[in-house]
Amino acid sequence: MTLEEKIGQMNQLDPSYDSEAKEALFREGRVGAILNGVEAKEVNRLQRMAVEETRLGIPLLVGRDVIHGFRTIYPIPLGQAATWDPELAEQAAALTADEAVSVGIRWAFSPMVDVARDPRWGRVAEGYGEDSYLASRMAAAVVRGYQSHNMAACVKHFAGYSASEGGRDYNTTWIPEVQLRDVYLPPFKAAVDAGAMSLMCSFNAINGLPSSANKHLNVDILRDEWQSDALLVSDWGSGMDLIPHGLCADRKEAALRCINARMEMDMQGNLYHDYLAELVAEGKVKERQIDECVKSILRMKYRLGLFENPYVPEEEPIAYSAEALALATEAVEQGTVLLKNNGILPLNNKEIQVLVSGPLADQQKEQLGTWVFDGEPEHSVTPLKALRDMGLKVSYEPGLQYSRDKRTSDFAKAVAAASKSDVILFFAGEEAILSGEARCRAELSLPGAQTELLTELKKTGKPIVLVVMAGRPLTIGKEVEMADAVLYSFHGGTMTGPGLANVFTGKAVPSGRLPMTFPKMVGQIPFYYNRLNSGRPCADDAVLMDDIPAGAPQFSIGASSYWLESTVEPLFPFGFGLSYTTFAYSGIEVTKNGEQIEVSGTITNTGMTDAYEVAQLYVHQCSGDLARPICELKGFRKIFIPAGESRTVSFTLTPEQLGYWHEAKKGYESCVWYATDKVDFKIWIAPDSRCQTVPTIISFLN
Ligand code: GLC
């Protein structure tokens, strides 16, 4: 390969921009990959230029933001995490790959595995929540699903992006090395271990160094420690962003910093296209640095079989198969979280008059959620349609036309309809555009006049089922108070309606569990379950603002870690979710078997309905070299238990799983290592992160 041909492979372009100018580049072999080509004929046309008109005939990689489905849209990844069912996510990824590959897309820019602890950040919608273990299980599952069906995964955003200060996208992140390794890197490592063919750099700077120029991240960790041979692609123009980051004076310097940090392909930045040959000629870049990058690119093309078969059938798109629609429905059923229920659900009587209200009850596009380019709203089935198709007696008065609507002019119609109904199903939440990239919020209340409308409906005295469709946790304490039952379905995708209708009527029992802590108020954020205890944890008798006597002297109330408006109680804890039945945990045993720890327990379905339970394994390290979280998820089992029956769940823990990253500093030197402290651990199985069945102390002391 000539130097120009090598550099051409490192250039990824979106052909929908200045396509004429770019066609010459394709014919000259100056482009190695495209993104956003979704029309098989067009993909083949560009592919023929690369394969049949260039000297070497190297095929193009064709990438696309396939995030939670392609034509069939599944719940947003945060909603898929709420299923706590990696196998379901794997199946969804496989069926998604079948649809995308059928039009020529062979590279999905997902899974996004940024562990997110701040729901103000718009991109929590795209990830798998606040826990590294749950995110790791989901990440590996999606990689397997895609790649077993001929589409490369691109694990993103590497790394630490979700720690953006203030929950404001692209913002600075300050992450200690041990926290980077304990919290943010594990899902990437799980994806790499599952064989991920590529990763994508993140936009953020970690401690002042943007990921595209971060050799420690991209070489020391990804290549040397993890031994990954995956392709590392920039995010859209993330190399160019080094200039506004204040790292580089100009694009040429940015190109140099990126290649020296082994960012291997430049997405829509044209940095390598414009400057790499010059930098080699000036001796600032060695050609072997370029060779390393090109090897990664060619390896991925080879693994995808593109050299054997670069073209796609043009008349055989796969879309909306019965299997995909059924799985999408199941994903809604399994990812919907029942947060409250005074018994109003399930609706057992088909004769009752149901009022469907709220701005999200019949929004085919909005229920698909963020990052949907190829899912067609006309295929999306809303709750209103599904309930009518089910034959329920339904009247419909939305009261508001969209989630940010502030007009109260239609409230009276909704209230009048409510007065003639037996139950109100109120669909609230966020339009799709209010979450995702660059869609961060400083408040987490329901937008528009939704709360006001709910308040008016509450005055009718009719029972209310509140259903929230959103791309993040919302501070819905007031609304929960007003409702008789609350379901949180995130943005459920194409089959939101049928999935929810099955849950309303009891045909499906909701089994979702929260993948993120729900704060009571924005002021509690960052707020996550596996926090450190601090030296003065929130006291049980913490005195809240309204309880402080007037004129209270300086030290009249305790000194512990809380807010005067709130204790450290969330609205709902990580892992929480109710069912239409109840479960009892008993007989939890923790024993040492050599170096391993065996944990088992019995779960009994003490109610009248067959249902799934998500048994969660938590640990707490009682002392150690560093302070450790009050609890950490180390395993889970989603298990179906018929009414009245019991099942035993068991887990095996290794010392490795109880370890963490340690750090020692000496002068300017610092070193980190992974180890397990020989100390006591509390270990228990519970239905969520707040419950503590009787924890068992197990000692690793010799
Ligand atoms: C965007 C996103 C990234 C996406 C890429 C291509 O800016 O950060 O997740 O895959 O650009 O659209």
Describe the protein's architecture and organization.
- There is one protein chain.
- The chain contains 18 helices and 25 strands.
- The strands form seven sheets. A six-stranded mixed beta sheet has the order 11-16-15-14-12-13, sandwiched between helices. It has a five-stranded parallel beta sheet with strand order 4-3-2-1-10.
- β12, α14 (383-389) and β13 form a beta-alpha-beta unit.
- α6 packs parallel to α8 (186-193) and α13 (322-335) crosses α18.
- It starts with a helix and ends with a strand.
- The model has no long low-confidence stretch (mean pLDDT 96).
- Bound molecules: alpha-D-glucopyranose.
- Alpha-D-glucopyranose binds next to loops.
* Number of DSSP helical runs: 18
Report the mean per-residue pLDDT as an integer: 96
CATH H level of the largest domain: which superfamily? Glycoside hydrolase, family 3, N-terminal domain
* Second rung of CATH, namely the architecture of the largest domain: Alpha-Beta Barrel
- Main-sheet strand order equals 11-16-15-14-12-13
Fill in the CATH topology of the largest domain.
TIM Barrel
Distinct ligands: alpha-D-glucopyranose
